[in-house]
Write a structure and sequence with these properties.
This protein has 752 residues and is α/β, with parallel strands linked by helices. 24% of the residues lie in helices and 30% in strands. Among the domains are: 215 residues, no CATH class; 198 residues, Lipocalin, CATH 2.40.128. A hairpin with a 2-residue loop joins strand 27 and strand 28. Helix 1 packs parallel to helix 13 and helix 13 packs parallel to helix 17.
């Protein structure tokens, strides 16, 4: 009679729970996934009314590309799939199809909320009694040999000093609950606003930038009555989701890829020194970011400078295409310090940050709104099913209010196991960076240990890890020190667990002939089988096509160019006419690309033609950044005869996400509203050779177009020159031909 298979209860049917269940099946175990939602996918699943916990807007744009948000063994696309940023709704579809493909044998129990887990028997070999509530509200229980907690690192909101908020007289929300349209209602009138954003990573950069965009879109008389303050405890790198990076053939025309595909590379892992300390690693990473961005960010402001002190610290990342421009314009005011709660009088307490010359003890008065971009915590979910004595072993007493996620991580071994809870329980996907490749390899590790194919870490290994980074460095365990210091960095975790599993996903990823040598989970060897993984082969082929081709794609380039236009530019334009009586000379002035929310929708109606329609009443702008500029210029034209004329003009520059296209439009007499279509910046076209020194100069990205405006033909041409990831200068040339026009104008723009 065959041995009875061991059973595994998995709490959570998100990415971590799904991939772990698949690994358990492959290892010969019987998993059961408990998911409170009616659909698999966790926080990515379709929204459900009345459900507690994080639920994502299906229109939300991901910060990481599909290369980080997929598993090694499922690629339901063709090789031509662009591995860019996706929307949450499409991610949900991927996870649902994964569950149908691999977990169709009754392993998923949807609509089943776990309300209690109880260890049964001695700690080292205990079973787990799982009590769950079904969709009808009835309670049942089952006992399992093993337990995996995959309830998610982002299952609940985290707000520090939560108990103090009772003293705050204004509005306090978490960034998850941020609704852009509610921030500046039309009935605000002349009310003065003082808004504080707390937190400096990821949404900590997105929220202030989005607020600044909303303020920039208000009537001019209301803008000065809104102050946006941003409080953060360390300088962070301000990076765009699509990152321009080195193009060896033309450094002024950078290639463009999603940030993770540039930064998470296999050759960087393999090229790292085995004797590299955490400080040395951080210095290397910060140096790489400095080279990519072209500066240490001191040009943005002293609060953002990654100086010698901060260069040795783990890099902080804030993602936004426009944040740095809003800081430079004064729309966002930075404050370096730590949020310490609310005083009895309703003011915000801020303490200084050690080793920061820009940080002081202060209180912030008159704040009417606080937005906490302070991340998430797994604790509320854990408290729902772990008894107080279990939580006590994990370091949290029942009296602890809103504990930080680090209280869990600091006591776990490599973020997968908790020594105080025994060797029949594991955790998957609770790390600070919940990329799916991490969850997949964590699930593989647990499946190997639960099935007896691999031993658990020894007590000595666990004890050394618990003693911290300095101890690990002192005894030569640098890999563990780097892992602990980075709080679970993406490639660090993969490399560490790969060594334990005896696999090497980095060598094949580093052996490709192109750069960057981007890493993705598809490079994992198949788990539990020697068969070729056809899905992985397709995914790797798609990535290679993307890195080689998409890094030069007009859609990616136009997105980066558009984001970099924001702000003020010094303008010099030369006009040369072939018709007598038409002014010739030099125009010198100041131009501005003023950011604003979308005021209309652009529709592509055919070859080279676009039309404007009404803007959506509401749209999710977070993750999409500036969609539109009101372009204005003003200056003086000095003719060849010495006459001086003052002039000004306006256009609208619009970015269309779906088409990946920049279009220019005329402005109505009200000076703001869209009028007729002007032209499209087509990056597949080369400007005509007319002998113009700017547009036809060497290097940079170039675009061209054409448009018949009434009786006059316009042939616009552009050239954009980058320095690092930033646009340094650009040229616009118009060749115009009509019944009473025959001239060429070329303008050069340099940052003001």
């Amino acid at each position: 009679m065959a041995d009875k298979k061991k059973t595994v209860a998995i709490i959570g049917g998100g990415p971590s729970g799904l991939t772990t269940a698949k690994s358990m099946l492959t290892a010969g175990l019987l998993p059961t996934v408990f998911e409170a939602r009616q659909n698999p996918g966790g926080l990515w699943a379709p929204r459900e009314a009345g459900l507690e916990g994080t639920q994502l807007n299906p229109e939300m744009r991901t910060n990481a590309s599909l290369a980080c948000n997929m598993f090694s063994d499922w690629f339901p696309y063709g090789e031509e799939k662009v591995l860019g940023h996706s929307e949450a709704g499409l991610v949900a579809e991927y996870l649902n199809s994964y569950a149908q493909r691999f977990l169709g044998g009754g392993q998923l129990r949807l609509g089943c909320e776990v309300v209690e887990v109880v260890p049964v028997g001695p700690r080292e070999e205990c079973e787990w009694r799982v009590v769950f509530r079904d969709a009808e509200g009835g309670e049942e229980e089952e006992t399992f040999d093993f337990l995996v907690v995959a309830s998610g690192a982002q299952s609940q909101l985290y707000i520090p000093h939560l108990e103090d908020l009772a003293n705050f007289p204004g509005k306090a929300i978490h960034s998850y609950n941020y609704v852009a349209e509610e921030m500046f209602p039309a009935n605000d009138g002349d009310r003065t606003r003082r808004i504080l954003v707390v937190g400096g990573l990821l949404s900590g950069a997105e929220i202030p930038a989005e607020l600044a965009l909303r303020v920039s879109s208000l009537p001019e008389e209301r803008r000065d009555k809104v102050e946006i303050l941003h409080l953060f405890s360390q300088p962070f790198w301000i990076l765009p989701r699509l990152l321009p990076f080195t193009n060896e053939k033309d450094p002024q025309a950078p290639r463009v890829l999603p940030l993770d595909q540039v930064f998470f590379t296999a050759d960087a892992v393999m090229g790292a020194s085995p004797s590299e300390s955490p400080e040395e690693k951080n210095t290397r990473l910060n140096g790489l970011l400095k080279a990519l961005m072209g500066s240490d960010q001191g040009d943005i402001g002293p609060e953002y400078q990654i100086d010698d002190h901060w260069s040795t610290k783990t890099p902080g990342i804030g993602m936004s295409e426009s944040y740095h421009r809003f800081v430079k314009s004064g729309a966002i005011k930075p404050i370096v310090g730590r949020y310490e709660g609310i005083t009895d009088t309703g003011a915000v307490r801020v303490s200084p940050v050690p080793n920061s010359t820009h940080s002081t003890d202060r209180t912030l008065e008159g704040i009417d709104t606080i937005i906490f971009a302070t991340g998430y915590t797994p604790w509320p979910a854990l408290r729902k099913f772990f008894a107080p004595e279990m939580l006590q072993k994990m370091g949290v007493s029942p009296e602890t209010v809103n504990p930080h996620a680090n209280l869990l991580f600091s006591r776990m071994h490599k973020q997968v196991m908790h020594p105080e809870l025994g060797r029949t329980i594991g955790f998957v996907g609770l790390q600070m960076r919940p990329y799916w490749g991490l969850s997949e390899i964590q699930g593989r590790w647990l499946a190997n240990m639960f099935s007896g194919k691999l031993d658990w870490p020894t007590d000595e290994e666990i004890a050394d890890y618990r003693k911290g980074v300095d101890h690990l460095v002192s005894i030569g365990k640098l890999n563990d020190a780097l892992l602990l210091n980075s709080q679970g960095g993406y490639l660090e975790v993969i490399g560490d667990i790969s060594r334990i599993l005896g696999i090497d996903p980095f060598t094949p990823a580093a052996s490709v002939t192109y750069t960057p040598k981007s890493f993705m989970p598809a490079y994992y060897p198949p788990f539990g089988t020697a068969e070729t993984n056809d899905d992985a082969t397709k995914a790797i082929r798609s990535l290679s096509l993307g890195v080689v081709n998409n890094s030069f794609s007009p859609a990616f380039v136009s997105k980066v160019v558009f984001a970099e236009l924001q702000g003020k530019w010094k303008l010099t334009r030369n006009l040369a006419s072939k018709l007598p009586g038409y002014p010739e000379g030099e125009f010198v002035g100041l131009a501005e690309f003023h950011p604003r929310i979308r005021s209309f929708t652009a529709f592509h109606t055919g070859e080279g033609q676009w039309t404007a329609g009404p803007a959506k009443a509401s749209y999710l702008s977070l993750g999409r950044d500036v969609p539109e500029y009101l372009y204005s210029e003003e200056g003086d034209l000095t003719t060849k005869s010495g006459l001086v004329f003052h002039g000004k003009r306006k256009y609208i520059y619009h970015y269309d996400d779906a088409a990946g296209a920049i279009t220019a439009w005329f402005v109505k007499l009200d000076g703001s509203s869209v009028d007729n279509f002007f032209h499209h910046l087509d990056f597949t076209k080369t400007p005509e050779k007319l002998g113009s020194p700017g547009v036809e100069g060497d290097g940079g990205w170039k675009a061209a177009g054409e448009h018949l405006c009434s009786k006059d033909w316009y042939w616009p041409a552009y050239r954009f020159v980058f320095r690092g990831a930033r646009l340094e200068r650009f040229w616009i040339r118009y060749k115009v031909l009509g019944p009473s026009k025959d001239y060429i104008s070329e303008a050069m723009y340099v940052r003001a």
